[in-house]
Structures are given as C-alpha cells and as structure tokens.
C-alpha cells in the first residue's frame, strides 16, 4: 500500500458532558459510547447509513477499568451494529487517551495502512467499579471451586476480618499516593501561582463556554437531540463569577491551598469522537466538513517529584514548535486541557521561563510571550468537564472546527497533560 504524505483532522460528534452522578449517571461507558460512535459514522459527520465499511480503523479508549470490557474499541464498534470487518485498537494514555489514539491513527495513515479512522474515547465516572480486596477475591474464587458445602464452608473459615474489604478506586497517582489536586497544589507553590489568577482563568472558561453554547457552537459537535437524557453540556455555570469563585474553600489543602472545586475540572461522564483521514479518506466524508492538517505531534514525560505531575506539556510544546521554527505568537489557536487552572498557569509560566526552556526543554531560542487571549476561546475542561478518555477527541474536534474558520495556513496547538507525568501535544494547520 503506498504511503500518504498528509493527514487531516475533521470533527466528529460527542455526547453532552455532565457531572458524575447527574444527568448521564444511569448510563455506563458502553451506553455513552455506542450512540456517539454510531452517529459519528452514519450521521451528518460520517460516511452515512450503509457506508460504515468506508472506515478503515477505529481507535477507542476508556481510563476507568471495566470487568466486562477489555478491547473497548472492538466492543463499542460491534455494539454499534457496524461492519464487523473494520479493525479496532484500544489505546489508553490517561487524560491524553483519545489524542494518543488520534496520533496512533495518524501514523497508520501516513504509513499507508488506512485512509479513514474514527478515534475517540469515553469515561463514565458514575460507573467506576468497586472491586473486592485481593484476599477477599481469592477466598471467593476458592469457595466457588470447592467441592460440596463442607469444602465451601472450610474455605470461608480461612477468611480473616481484615481480609473483608473493598477496593475503591481513587483519582490518585499509584507511584506517589497523592491525588492530582495535591500534586497541582505543590506545583502551584513552586511556580508562585496565585489563587486570584486561578479564579480568573476558571471564570473565563465558564464565560467562554456559556457564550459558545448560547451561540450554537457546540450544537455542531453534539449528537442529535433526544439521544441522551440531556441535549447540551450541563456543567458551564453562569454564576461561576470571580466573586462566587472567590468564596470557595480550598479543596486539597484546607490550610494553605489555592485550588478549589471551582478552579478544577469536575469528574464527568461523556464520550467523544474525531476523524483522522488522508485525502482519500476525506472523500468518504460529507462535502464541506471542516478539515485541518495535522502537521506534527510530540509526547513528553517529566520527573513527577522534581518537575510536577502535570508539567510535561511545558516540555512538549516548545520542542514541537522549535522543530517547525515557530514561536508562540505564530500560533493562532491554543486548545489547552484545563485539568486545573493552576496546572495551566504553571505550564504557561514554564513556557516563558528562560531556565526551564534551556535546562529542561533544551530550547535555546526563546519562543516569545504566550498569547493568552488565543487560548480556549470557547471554554475548556474546567467549564465543560473532563471524561478522561473523551477529552482528547473533544478538544481535537473543537479545534478543527475553530481553526478551519481561520485563514489558510493558520496554526493551532492542542495540548493535554496526563497522569503519570505525561504530556501529549499536536500541531494543526488550516487549509
């Protein structure tokens, strides 16, 4: 198969995003995924009914584990009733899951192994499983395999009270035992990020998201009305003003903390998709669907304790831009994942810091001042929510729609931090 020289990103559809245990709380990750993926293929953004074989590859991921599903991509595709001959890959990179899936698909397209790929992800925080402790699980397995009532009773008698416990998942780093919020607090102290600046960023996220919702921007990216119990994102709040955010108490460090629930992305339910295609793949999609060129991407990892859990984009962004001879001001659109306002502000501070750029990122020529007014023009994860596996595809589709409206050659950067000290960024260009 001949290789492709270019790969493009086109918007697909997503579900509304809602807070955990709210409007979408009765639906599990499969129930969120199937209609979203199905409509992306057969609906207004896809090849259309009966044309599902036009898709060469589906890449999907979910961060929250499931006892019933292992290969998420394959199971979601099959449950959608689509052509079973389409190949499927499950990929997980924590918060960067569906961006990682997109760049994986891009590699397949550039290698000539696919022309059209649907990439995305999901998470239902409302359906996070509660497991059994290790010893309790082993005891129940032995009991189930025992012969006769006597054998079962004997196995149960081996249990100790300390073994009868549940394994409840926590949003925390396995290597440190600290939550993301605790890590973000530590990084905010290191960079001297103020509470006032965090609240201002959070208020802007909500204001931009509400304006975009009222203007119908997100309606272009959402599944058909009536698909889910709600038809629009429910998290953006008009009362998330500077004054109201300023009243909230710190969430992770009650005594000296600066991060609140209002300046953090909420635990969220939702699913999202994006298209990756070459020129032939674009021809399989509806005419007029916005397309932007995916020029390049970069991944980075940081020393969690020395540099900060969520700081890897501050390494990846300058390295990516330097490879193309670009400064920050050469980028017309910045879509930056808002895990926390503090994390965004620390990253921006590092991107403008001479020592960080030289000693950590290896960049000798300063890329300039960061144009904050070009960041997240239609709101970010603080306002919209953050279903871990879906955020990358949400941001990619959103960026494609935004960037395609700008003049040809305009550049855009998508940046996502991820647990484990990882960062994944992509460089886009309008055509």
Structure in words:
The chain is an alpha+beta fold. The chain folds into 2 domains: 8-129 and 268-282, Peroxisomal Thiolase, Chain A, domain 1 (3-Layer(aba) Sandwich), CATH 3.40.47; 180-221 and 233-247 and 294-430, Thiolase/Chalcone synthase (Peroxisomal Thiolase, Chain A, domain 1, 3-Layer(aba) Sandwich). It has helices at 29-42, 72-79, 97-110, 134-145, 148-157, 180-191, 195-214, 242-245, 279-282, 304-307, 313-323, 341-351, 354-360, 381-384, 391-404, and strands at residues 8-14, 18-19, 57-62, 87-90, 116-124, 131-132, 166-167, 268-277, 292-301, 331-336, 411-418, 422-430. The strands form 2 sheets. Strands 1, 2, 3, 4, 5, 8, 9, 10, 11 and 12 form a 10-stranded mixed beta sheet that branches. Strand 3, helix 2 (72-79) and strand 4 (87-90) form a beta-alpha-beta unit.
Please give a quick description of this structure:
The protein has helices spanning 29-42, 72-79, 97-110, 134-145, 148-157, 180-191, 195-214, 242-245, 279-282, 304-307, 313-323, 341-351, 354-360, 381-384, 391-404, and strands at 8-14, 18-19, 57-62, 87-90, 116-124, 131-132, 166-167, 268-277, 292-301, 331-336, 411-418, 422-430. The protein is an alpha+beta fold and 431 residues long.
List the helices and strands and how they pair.
Layout: E1 8-14, E2 18-19, H1 29-42, E3 57-62, H2 72-79, E4 87-90, H3 97-110, E5 116-124, E6 131-132, H4 134-145, H5 148-157, E7 166-167, H6 180-191, H7 195-214, H8 242-245, E8 268-277, H9 279-282, E9 292-301, H10 304-307, H11 313-323, E10 331-336, H12 341-351, H13 354-360, H14 381-384, H15 391-404, E11 411-418, E12 422-430
Parallel strand pairs: 3-4, 3-5, 10-11
Antiparallel strand pairs: 1-8, 1-9, 2-8, 5-8, 6-7, 9-12, 11-12
Helix pairs in contact: 1-2, 3-15, 4-5, 6-12, 11-12
């Amino acid at each position: 198969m001949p290789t492709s020289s270019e790969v493009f990103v086109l918007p697909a559809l997503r579900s509304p995003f809602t807070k955990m245990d709210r409007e979408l709380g009765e639906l599990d990750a499969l129930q969120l995924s199937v209609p979203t993926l199905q409509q992306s293929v057969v609906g207004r953004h896809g090849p259309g009914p009966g044309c599902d074989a036009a898709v060469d590859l589906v890449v999907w991921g979910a961060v929250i584990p499931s006892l019933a599903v292992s290969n998420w991509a394959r199971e979601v595709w099959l449950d959608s009733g689509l052509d079973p001959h389409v190949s499927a890959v499950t990929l997980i990179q924590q918060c960067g899951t569906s961006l990682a899936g997109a760049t994986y698909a891009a590699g397949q397209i550039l290698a000539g192994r696919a022309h059209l790929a649907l990439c995305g992800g999901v998470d239902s925080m409302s359906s996070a499983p509660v497991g059994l402790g290790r010893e309790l699980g082993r005891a129940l397995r032995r009991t189930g395999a025992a012969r006769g009532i006597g054998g079962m009773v004997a196995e149960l008698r081996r249990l100790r009270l300390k073994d009868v416990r549940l394994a409840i998942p926590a949003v925390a780093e396995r290597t440190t035992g600290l939550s993301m919020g605790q890590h973000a607090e530590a990084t905010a102290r290191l960079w001297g990020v103020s509470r006032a600046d965090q609240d201002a960023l959070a208020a802007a996220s909500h204001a931009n998201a509400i304006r975009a919702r009222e203007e119908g921007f997100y309606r272009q990216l959402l599944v058909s009305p009536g698909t889910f119990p709600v038809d629009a994102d429910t998290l953006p709040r008009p009362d998330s003003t500077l004054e109201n955010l300023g009243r909230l108490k710190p969430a992770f460090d009650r005594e000296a903390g600066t991060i609140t629930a209002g300046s953090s992305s909420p635990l969220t339910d939702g699913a999202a998709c994006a298209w990756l295609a070459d020129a032939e793949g674009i021809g399989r999609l509806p005419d007029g669907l916005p397309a932007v060129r995916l020029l390049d991407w970069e991944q980075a990892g940081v020393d969690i304790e020395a540099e900060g859990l969520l700081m890897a984009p501050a390494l990846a962004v300058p390295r990516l831009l330097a490879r193309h001879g670009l400064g920050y001001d050469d980028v017309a659109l910045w879509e930056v994942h808002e895990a926390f306002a503090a994390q965004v502000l620390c990253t921006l501070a590092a991107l403008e810091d001479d020592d960080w750029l030289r000693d950590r990122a290896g960049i000798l020529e300063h890329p300039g001042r960061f144009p904050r007014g070009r960041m997240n023009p239609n709101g970010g994860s603080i306002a919209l929510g953050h279903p871990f596996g879906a955020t990358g595809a949400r941001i990619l589709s959103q960026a494609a729609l935004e960037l395609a409206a700008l003049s040809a050659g305009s550049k855009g950067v998508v940046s996502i931090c991820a647990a484990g000290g990882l960062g994944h960024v992509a460089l886009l260009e309008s055509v």
